[in-house]
Design goal:
This protein is α+β, with helices and mostly antiparallel strands and 155 residues long. The chain has helices spanning 34-37, 48-64, 136-152, and strands at 5-9, 20-24, 27-31, 70-78, 83-90, 95-103, 125-135.
Length: 155
């Protein structure tokens, strides 16, 4: 079964730069883990993988709330001058449309392990081709597997 979404740390020789990969269907996006590495919130872990798993915990909570329908916004790329987000829409609480886009909200204005304290974008510049449709339970299950895999990675 192909996962509708996957967000992983990839091995590079650049430290915390270009070391995250988001896969959304056939779309791929490379991001830096810098803000995950320097996150000092009370909920932060000791490694980038722990903090990425914590970010996915928050995504899972937001997506689960869509059981009655609605929209969830999930940040995934924290940069100095902008952030990238996933917009998850569910009209019926059973299916979901996930789209990636950019916001002018700066990545340093909130911490990845505590996204509730960050500003939510009012507008996203959507990325062409960065879209999947799937069942809402399949999306939650894929995010849970992704999070669990990150937690099993050696520190």
């Amino acid at each position: 079964m192909t996962e509708p979404i996957r967000f992983d740390r990839v091995v590079t020789d650049r430290g915390v730069h270009n070391d995250l990969e988001l896969r959304l269907g056939s779309y791929r996006h490379t991001a830096d883990s810098y803000y995950l590495a320097i996150d000092d919130s009370p909920t932060a872990g000791e490694t980038v993988e722990e903090n990425l798993a914590r970010l996915l915990d928050q995504w899972i909570d937001r997506v689960r709330r869509l059981g009655g329908g609605g929209e969830a916004l999930l940040p995934y790329d924290f940069s100095d001058q902008c952030t990238a987000w996933l917009r998850v829409d569910s009209a019926d609480g059973r299916t979901a449309v996930v789209q990636a886009g950019w916001s002018g909200i700066e990545g340093w204005t909130f911490l990845p392990t505590n996204i509730a304290e960050g500003e939510q974008p009012r507008y996203l510049q959507l990325i062409e081709g960065a879209r999947v449709e799937c069942r809402l339970p399949d999306l939650v299950a894929a995010l849970e597997r992704n999070r669990d895999d990150l937690r099993r990675q050696p520190a």
